[in-house]
Amino acid sequence: MALLRCESTVFPAKVGAFTVSYQKRSELVKFNHCPGLGFLHSLQHNNGKLRHQLKCKITARKLCQSQTFVITSELPQNADFPKYYSKNEKKPFPIPIVELRRAARERLKNRKDKPKGRGPPPRKGLVVKSLVPLAYDVYNARITLINNLKKLLKVVPVHACGWCNEIHVGPEGHPFKSCKGKYATLRKGLHLWTNAAVEDVLAPIESYHLYDRLAKRITHYERFSIPRIAAAVELCIQAGVDIPDYPTKRRRKPIIRINKSEFIDADESDLPDPVPEVPPKPLLTETPISQILAPSNEDEKLLLAEETLAAWEKMRKGANKLMKMYPVRVCGYCPEVHVGPSGHKAQNCGAHKHQQRNGQHGWQAAVLDDLIPPRYVWHVPDVKGPPLRRELKSFYGQAPAVVEICIQAGAAIPEEYKPTMRLDIGIPSSPKEAEMVV
């Protein structure tokens, strides 16, 4: 067991999260749990000396007979990759079904003696005024991200498999046998790499555009008469963004609900005529691919990468806030997304065992990765170094495709993506050296 001699002073330190039990001045202090120093157990019978520089921050709480030091870590630790769900299994609920039923019973219990009509403004047909600027920011961040990715793809090589939806960012495609497309067994799982486009990096998740988000659900026979647009754009429209090509109904009074599925609009004749409001921010437009110019030098490339990474974070964080107020649904069997209080009735689900459901979608609450998929790719530790090796696959990390493109263009690595990138793992130089790793 690793022991550490501690004096009755507070010394600056920063290590992984563990608890130190404080005793008297001359006694020893034991670490109850230290994931970052687990290898010390193998050195307890070694006579050699171990010297390791620790950078930690120790906070002392109340002085008493048993004093506790709380040590918090800011250093990135390794994390598991996002779980891959097979097409033969249903995605789990973001909140367990038992918790959903318990919360529903609590709502019914608390609503018993209260008047009806309570709920957030979107449920009453209104727009949350405080979230309108945020919706414009999310929309403009998405346009900025698309335009910048078109420029970065001219200087950063990105490859896409011609048989499956896997992509890779680097000078050449990775050698891993992970293709699940057509004729994959004949190719022994190897990918057929081609040049990637923006649609390969940003997955085109579309949903139906709703003129009235509180209207009746879209039927199976209306599935071709209603336009489909990007799900993130539809979320921004319902949150207050006005786009002339996609009109939507804006109510100025809350609806009068008759029952759970029926309501009538309030009389707005006593209100003055609506005046066209000036948008808080002008809307950006996508630049055609023929007008895209690649960055001319390294400084411009670096600034473009940092701007792209900032737009990616702004879009995801803003969309996550909007989803807490404006519900988004996703099918548990396929990637179909619907922005609205309840999913549509179109019978176009072709996932596993769709015949048993008559093509109906299994709607459930969506998370941010359903609306904006990150598309994880393998992280290349050194772009100018040797390519990835098939035998060392377990030593490589992963990062979202947009983040990996910006990193290879020169941007700094964001802290939140470091755990899955496995930056603190030493990569062996050969398979023989990898076999020696315990």
From TrEMBL:
GO terms for molecular function: RNA binding. InterPro entries: APO_dom. Transmembrane segments: none annotated. Residues 160-245, 330-415 form the APO domain. It comes from the Eukaryota. This is APO domain-containing protein. It comes from Erythroxylum novogranatense.
